[in-house]
């Protein structure tokens, strides 16, 4: 008999257990008290990569909901983490493995995942948000893949799922330019499952989670497994994009990207490129 995982080890994620086997993951609950957006620092990045294995083997969980607290779903990587990745090979190698595990662990988690995205949705949180089996966005959400604005290739989830969800033309437009996608537009182009008014977001996520929890667990999980073979087939594309992203963390553009974000100005990247 599989035992329930010890969720108390997670410090950056708030774990709430609800009736009918619904497990709620809340990012940034502690940060929202300080009126900050949820950022993926060293601890949260690691926890986001590993928790899906615990959910997968948790006999008490049928469905997982992931959402953000406070002003938004997720604000992307903490700049101190990004700077450490740029400066330290050991950190860069560790975070590369976590980024790889985050994507594959969400894909391979047998339990259905529902995401509820509001406000800004960027970075590691967005990985889980868009790879969720049912992704729900507030109509006024702002989904942004910020990689090229930072000066690195669009890695983590971007290459594996954006072209599949919204087509290559839209994927290239938004990934190359880092333009924000509203929840309404994200639903229109197929990037998310549903867009709803923000005040209805959490309620809709729980409504869908309840329907999934009440359904045939074998049928739902096996359907998810089969459908996610589309994502597994894109594994080589994802691996290449992640390697290129992390190569960028050793180059000069990311230093300028971090500096420009800290100084709240447009980046001035070197126009030359060795590629």
Give short descriptive properties of this protein:
single chain, 275 residues, alpha/beta, 2-enoyl-CoA Hydratase, Chain A, domain 1, four-stranded mixed sheet, 14 helices, 10 strands, 52% helix, 15% strand
Give a quick precis of the structure.
Keywords: Isomerase. With 275 residues, the chain is of the alpha/beta class.
What this model shows, in words?
This protein has 275 residues and is α/β, with parallel strands linked by helices. The chain has a single domain (13-263), classed as 2-enoyl-CoA Hydratase, Chain A, domain 1 (Alpha-Beta Complex). It has helices at residues 29-32, 42-57, 79-87, 89-108, 123-131, 147-150, 158-166, 168-177, 183-189, 201-214, 217-227, 229-233, 235-248, 252-262; strands at 13-18, 22-27, 63-68, 74-75, 113-117, 120-122, 134-138, 142-143, 181-182, 194-196. The strands form 2 sheets. The chain has a 6-stranded mixed sheet, sandwiched between helices. The protein has a 4-stranded mixed sheet with strand order 4-6-8-9. Helix 3 runs antiparallel to helix 14 (252-262), helix 4 (89-108) packs parallel to helix 5 (123-131) and helix 4 (89-108) runs antiparallel to helix 13 (235-248). The model has no long low-confidence stretch (mean pLDDT 94).
Structural class: alpha/beta
- Which of globular, elongated, flat, extended, rod-shaped describes the shape? globular
Question: What is the averaged pLDDT score?
Answer: 94
Instruction: Describe the strand arrangement of the main beta sheet, using strand numbers.
Output: 1-2-3-5-7-10
Give the biggest beta sheet.
6 strands, mixed
Number of strands: 10
CATH topology, by name, is 2-enoyl-CoA Hydratase, Chain A, domain 1
User: What is the H/E order?
Assistant: EEHHEEHHEEHEEHHHEHEHHHHH
How many individual helices? 14
Percent of sequence in beta strands: 5-15%
CATH-defined architecture: Alpha-Beta Complex
Helix content: 40-55%
The CATH homologous superfamily: 2-enoyl-CoA Hydratase, Chain A, domain 1
The total number of structural domains is 1
C-alpha-based Rg, rounded: 18 Å
InterPro entries: ClpP/crotonase-like_dom_sf, Enoyl-CoA_hyd/isom_CS, Enoyl-CoA_hydra/iso, Enoyl-CoA_hydra_C
GO molecular function, one term: isomerase activity
Protein name: Enoyl-CoA hydratase/isomerase family protein
Family: Belongs to the enoyl-CoA hydratase/isomerase family.
């Amino acid at each position: 008999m599989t035992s329930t995982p010890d969720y108390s080890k997670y410090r950056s994620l708030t774990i709430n257990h609800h009736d009918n086997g619904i497990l709620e993951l809340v990012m940034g609950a502690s940060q929202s008290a300080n009126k900050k957006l949820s950022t993926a620092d060293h601890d949260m990045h690691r926890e986001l990569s590993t928790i899906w294995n615990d959910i997968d083997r948790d006999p008490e969980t049928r469905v997982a909901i992931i959402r953000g607290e406070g002003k938004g779903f997720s604000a992307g990587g903490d700049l101190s983490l990004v700077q450490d990745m740029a400066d330290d090979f050991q950190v860069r190698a560790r975070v590369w493995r976590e980024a790889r595990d985050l994507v594959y662990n969400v894909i391979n988690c047998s339990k259905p995942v529902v995401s509820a995205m509001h406000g800004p949705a960027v970075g590691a949180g967005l990985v889980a948000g868009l790879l969720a089996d049912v992704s729900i966005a507030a109509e006024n959400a702002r989904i942004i893949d910020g990689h090229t604005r930072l000066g690195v290739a669009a890695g983590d989830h971007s290459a594996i799922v954006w072209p599949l969800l919204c087509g290559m033309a839209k994927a290239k437009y938004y990934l190359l330019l880092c333009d924000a996608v509203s929840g309404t537009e994200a639903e229109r182009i197929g990037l998310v499952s549903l867009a709803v008014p923000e005040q209805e977001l959490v309620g809709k996520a729980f409504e869908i989670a309840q329907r999934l929890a009440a359904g045939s667990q074998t049928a739902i999980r096996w359907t998810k497994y089969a459908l996610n073979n589309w994502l597994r087939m894109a594994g080589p594309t994802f691996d290449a994009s992640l390697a290129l992203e992390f190569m960028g963390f050793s180059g000069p553009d990311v230093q300028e990207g971090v500096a420009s974000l800290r100084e709240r100005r447009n980046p001035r990247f070197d126009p030359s490129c060795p590629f």
